[in-house]
Amino acid sequence: MKKILAMVLALAMMLSVAGALADTLIMETNAAFPPYEFYEDEKIVGIDAEIAAAIAEKLGMDLEIVDTDFGAIIGDVQTGKCSIGMAGMSVTPERLQSVSFSDTYATGVQVIIVAEDSDIVSVDDLGAEGADWKIGVQEATTGAIYCADDYGDDRVDPYKTGADAVAALKAGKVKCVVIDSEPAKKFVEANEGLKILDTEYVTEEYAIAIAQENTELLDNINQALKELTEDGTIQTIIEKYINAED
After folding, report:
1. How many domains does the chain have?
2. 15, pLDDT greater than 80
3. How far apart are CA 177 and CA 167, in angstroms?
4. What was the pLDDT predicted at 16?
5. CATH number for the domain including 155?
6. Quick one: 58 and 145 in the same domain?
7. Among 69, 78, 71, 72, which Cα is nearest to 100's?
8. Tens digit of pLDDT for each residue in 137-178?
9. What distance in Å separates the CA atoms of residue 42 and residue 223, rounded to the nearest whole number?
10. Is there a single domain that holds both residue 100 and residue 25?
């Protein structure tokens, strides 16, 4: 009788845990990418964090945000370690081989950070004849992918975070950094002697990574995004963190 009771209690506990997990939207991100995700008073905040919270509310779920290396997110979504990946992440053919993506919720622009006295004045200078200096990027980002495709792996120095890449630029280890425009603005504001080139490197769209087999969650998130776009919530969140005049 005691064994049966123990088995019943264990089963009830397992069902309770499973139910709790089903009601939690676990979002993996890399919280070193302001204004999309960053720490404020030991809490992860930003555009992605607030949009994810709004989606979770729409779906009647709790939101849990996990900070990890950017390069680990796609694999963790694919294996079910988390529900979604949301980290200023754009859709690429390579990523689509592993995960599905939601509809677009924001547009990003890859730009180039250089020293104020740099002789790099446009995107064309990165591929100029004789250019063999290093380009700093955040590892596993589209900036890293594009630069490797355009200029070769030997020209690209990947760093764990954008801040690390910028530190390498200031230390003279790389001659420029390719990164999203909004974090670029924050990094330049925080580091005297740097500037952003006027010419853009590439424009891309951000979306949410979801496991390919989880079509129900994909449909539900797309519906939530549609409603949050139509009622102005997403635009309000973006404008909270990005000055329209910047």
Report:
1. 2
2. no
3. 10
4. 40
5. 3.40.190.10
6. no
7. 78
8. 999 999 999 999 999 999 999 999 999 999 999 999 999 999
9. 31
10. yes
Q: pLDDT digit string (tens) for 180-217?
A: 999 999 999 999 999 999 999 999 999 999 999 999 99
**Average pLDDT of span 100-129:** 96
Query: What's the chain's length in residues?
Result: 246
pLDDT of residue 46: 97
Taking a C-beta distance cutoff of 8 angstroms, is the pair 27, 84 a contact? yes
Considering the domain architecture, whether residues 175 and 193 belong to the same structural domain is answered as: yes
Same domain, residue pair 213 and 172: no
pTM score above 0.85:
no
Is the separation of the CB atoms in 175 and 187 below 8 Å? Answer: no
Q: Are residues 49 and 166 in the same domain?
A: no
**By residue range, what is the domain housing residue 112?**
108-203
Closest among 118, 122, 142 to 206, alpha carbons compared? 142
246 within some domain: no
What is the token pair recorded at 57? 């509310």
